[in-house]
Amino acid sequence: MKGLFFSGLLALLSTPFATASTPHEDVLQLAASGNGLIKLNAQTYELLTSPKRTWSASIQFTAMDAKRKCAPCAQFDPQWKAVAKSWRGVPVKQRDEHFFATVDFDDAPTIFQKLGLASAPIVFNYPAAAGERKPASGKTGPIKYDFGDGFDAGPLAEVISKFTPIPVPYKEPIDWTKASLAIVAIPAVLLLLRYLGPVVQNRWVWAVGTILTSLVMTSGYMFVRIRAAPWNGGGGNWIAAGHQNQYGQEVQVIAFIYGLLSFSFLMLIMVVPYQKSPSRQRIQIYLWTGVIMIMYSVLVSIFRVKNRGYPFKLWL
Amino acid sequence: MSTAYAVPTDLPPSTVKNAASLLRIVALSLISGAAIASRLFAVINFESIIHEFDPWFNYRATRVLAAKGFYEFWNWFDPTAWYPLGRVVGGTVYPGLMATSGVIYNILHAINLPVDIRNICVLLAPGFSALTAWSTYMFTKEMKDPSAGLLAAAFIGIAPGYISRSVAGSYDNEAIAIFLLMFTFYCWIKALKQGSALFGTIAAVFYFYMVAAWGGYVFITNMIPLHALVLVLMGRFSDRLYVAYSSWYAIGTLASMQVPFVGFQPVSTSEHMGALGVFGLLQIVAFGQLVRSHVSSQQFQKLLQVSVVVIGLLGAFAFAFLTYNGKIAPWTGRFYSLWDTGYAKKYIPIIASVSEHQPTAWPSFFMDLQFLIFAFPAGVILCFRELRDEHLFVIIYAVMASYFAGVMVRLMLTLTPVVCVASAIALSNLLDTYIDPTEPTPVEDDTKSESEASTVGTNGSNAPAAQAPSGKKIKKAAAAVNVSGSALSDFVAATKATESGSKVKKGIFGLDVRAVVVFNTIGLLAFFVLHCTWTTAMAYSSPSVVLASSGPDGSQHIIDDFREAYYWLRQNTAEDAVVMSWWDYGYQIAGMADRPTLVDNNTWNNTHIATVGKAMSSSEENAYPILRKHDVEYILVIFGGLIGYSGDDINKFLWMVRIAQGVWPDEIQESNYFTNTGEYRVDDRASKTMKESLMYKMSYYRFADLFGGGQGTDRVRQQSLPKVGPTLDYLDEAFTSENWIVRIYQVKKEDPLGRDLKSANAFSEGKKRKRGKPTSRRRALVQ
Q1: Using an 8 Å Cβ cutoff, are A195 and A201 in contact?
Q2: Peptide bond into A165 cis (omega under 30)
Q3: DSSP three-state, residue B550
Q4: In whole angstroms, what is the distance from residue B325 CA to residue B327 CA?
Q5: Where is this region: Disordered (chain B) (predicted)?
Q6: pTM summary value
Q7: Is A274 an interface residue toward B (CB < 8 Å)?
Q8: Is the CB of A268 inside 8 Å of chain B's CB atoms?
């Protein structure tokens, strides 16, 4: 009770024109002045998260100042603002029950210390602590948002919707460049198809497509995509350690080696027999056999780096 | 005709033919022998034991089938699984595997060979691998010729990608499924080639067997329609296709609906809609063809074409409408996550948590397929060169399977057959070219038969008939002018060869180059055999129930903690004592300890699994009511920290947390189990929630005592543990196995005086309760 009075007093001090107003009205005014997104300092933070709050709030803890060098903060901030902005669109009655706020480290380092936060960005959702919107479980402590799905606004809005009186009406903005490209592309493809008919019907076009797909897939492309593996390890290190792991660059190298080996086989099977000069044929056969030996040795030696226990080696 | 080396010319053709067929039979039986033998490492190194997790359930079900007969098995309700819900086993299982073993068991007993059912189960997979080799031989024979077939059979016999799922003791559905897959495909190709309803029906029967045996039957359900669809789109519709597809689809679908677990899915889920749609499309196209052949009017044909398109569109719209209305179930999560790869992690963490559902990094491909992985694109290109109807099948199969294998490690199994087939085609072509003793004729004399060749060549640009392989004189040509030395132009010339009219004899000059290529190929094959043997012995033959470690002097030490603990449970606990563990160990507990379990590897009830996850990740006070409400008497955890067994529960713990969070997001949060800096730690810096969780306490309870006051080290996570370990108030340590891998705890009953167990413990230890605490902390924990 004392704390509430105290924080109310502080809020009063900070907003001298709001005389004898309830804490909720103070917060409303803060929200109005911030255009839906409250920028908090130490005092207003206490007001917004007061233990007697009848409203709920979502607060972003960030460090936008350039000297903090927080790249994820800069990445997340627009997403946060987009969600906060979408909340302004809901009817006033529900809108006033939930607030979006931002605490910047340089405005209020004490809050970060108090909450023991060592990293940013962080989002806390504060459920209502009093009144009829108090959760049935009685847990009114802040709940941290899990960035497991990345910084995208979509999942964020979905999670915040659990704390708001009505779901956050966030919609993915339409990507106009993509949409217009698609609109242009469809007729263009149809038009091209008239001229590209022979190409589409050519089996070797399909053969190249098929082979490229297989090569890329068997070189672990899907692993890199699904796990979002980095391109390389930095410092010229492009082979990830371990049998169950790989970098993006490995896909290219391995696919190239596989492709070259396949190509050598094909040359030996499909092309060399048609060579009509014996000496030239002999050179080609030795050449492609040599390529197979060398590239295979390279492949095995790369594999030995990945799998240290592998006992076999070829020429290399 | 000049030859590179002397060949006997006075042999009658029948002798050659008979010798070749004898050699084929000998080779196939040797391949079968090698396939079976290489799968026996596990039995020789360890013993005749069922491996891993799922096989334990299959084994248990097979024992019921063998002991009580098929009807009992069919109506089997298992009250000990998913306690207290139970499981209707007969209706939730693919019975093909158990039925197969049951039939073999009964036949052997009928002829007075009293073989133990366990040995049948253990040796079923190696036995079927021999059949797989044979069916791959038949399949490849249809693609090229018997010599390619023998190579393919040898490859699939020893390729680690298939061995990994079919070593002796790996008694799982895949053990028989790959044989069924390849044989169904073979019958389909045969039916398509001959337009044979008989082979179509055989394909349907084996498809039914496959449906009864493995959930992966959906792969066939979509591969065959896809093949048919591509044929139709390429304008290769024929009566043969119509007969083959219709007989396969009609009989196969009706038969597959007899499996209770499948039921009406073939007409009500999206996975099966492609097959139905192609069936409808074929009827429309066939009808169109029929009418066209009877009607001459131009306008009518136009009308017909339009109506075919309109009917097709209407069908597609009807499908979309029914899906939208929920009449047709959308793709199930497991299949959907193959396309939208982020889907499973977000919505069905149970699927994402399974290690064999992880994406595949390239070393796994190389490990499982070795040189086949780069010989196979060459084989696919050779399929493109001929491009008969059946070659399209291999091409489509190659693309689909390599995508699926990239998304999920376990689907490497479906990629392996096509890789073996395609690389066998490539290698067989290579050997054909370089063993063939015929030397090409000199350059100048090949202008006279040009007209003859051009009449063949004009038979449509893609006409496969144009290249009817007439033994050693395949008349395909490179444009003679183009042979200018550059390799690339050579390649282009060769690929154009089928279309251009001019011809030269192809062939290899001289003996030395033949020797080089053949020697190199034999080297590749020998290396492959070494690689397969090593991989099978080292990586794929561990039963994972019994572990082996080798000492510094190379001596083998067997770690048998699992069976030790399960037999302890079997002999020291009441028969109806409920054992809680993470779901990985459910089947093993049921199979080896014969005790009721809360959850097992048949992950059908997410909430129940999440309940266990919640109990494991909550603090003792919060977990105790959950345990009591589920009648849990024993809790079993796997702990590898002492001997460095990395597949333990602490490493799986985050998945338990995630799955629990999916159901109770406000009680369990993953981030609470990390340190402030976002690390997953078990030492002093571990988060408070982590240290209080039941899993942490059970894993490290009394662990510090082992080190006699010194600093304890967790050898899996390489972290030093706090000197004072966790204490337990609600559980008693009941059993810890020799190497501490399995730890079993008994759940205490409520305090007889009605205190909560924490204060009861404190009282008995002589600690005085602090003043100011509420005097009565009685509460009813179990109503």
Answers
A1: no
A2: no
A3: strand
A4: 6
A5: 438-470, 761-783
A6: 0.80
A7: yes
A8: yes
Q: Kindly write down the DSSP assignment for every residue of B404-455, as one continuous string.
A: HHHH-GGGHHHHHHHHHHHHHHHHHHHHHHHH--BPPPPGGG-STTHHHHHH
Within chain A, residue ranges assigned H as helices are 2-14, 23-33, 42-48, 71-87, 92-95, 109-115, 153-160, 176-200, 203-218, 221-227, 248-266, 278-306
Closest-CA residue in chain B for A311?
Answer: B534
Structure tokens at B92: 């939730």
User: Rounded to an integer, what distance in angstroms lies between the CA atom of residue B532 and that of residue A42?
Assistant: 67
Q: How far apart are CA B301 and CA B304, in angstroms?
A: 5
CA-based nearest residue in chain A for residue B427: A265
Which of the residue ranges A234-238, B275-279, B747-751 would you say has the lowest mean pLDDT? Answer: A234-238
User: CB of B388 within 8 Å of any CB in chain A?
Assistant: no
Quote the percentage of chain B above a pLDDT of 90.
Answer: 43
Q: Nearest C-alpha of chain B: how many angstroms from A263?
A: 7
Write down the domain spans for chain A: 2-160, 219-306
What is the DSSP code string of A151-170?
S-HHHHHHHHTTTSSS----
Cβ–Cβ under 8 Å, residues B42 and B169 = yes
CB contact under 8 A, B398 and A214: yes
Give SS3 for B632.
strand
Q: For residue range B219-238, what is the model confidence (pLDDT) as tens digits?
A: 999 999 999 999 988 888 89
Per domain, the residue ranges of chain B are: 561-749
Rounded Cα gap, residues A295 and A304, in angstroms:
14
Q: Is it the case that residue B478 has pLDDT exceeding 60?
A: no
Are B387 and A311 within 8 A, CB to CB?
no
- Token digits of residue B732: 């008693």
Q: For chain A, say whether B422 makes contact (Cβ under 8 Å).
A: no
Contact B402 A213 (CB under 8 A): yes
Task: Report the chain B residue with the minimal C-alpha distance to residue A275.
Answer: B483
Reported as a pLDDT band with limits 50, 70 and 90, residue B400 is: very high
Matching CATH number, B561-749, of 1.10.10.60, 3.30.110.70, 3.40.50.12610, 3.40.50.80: 3.40.50.12610
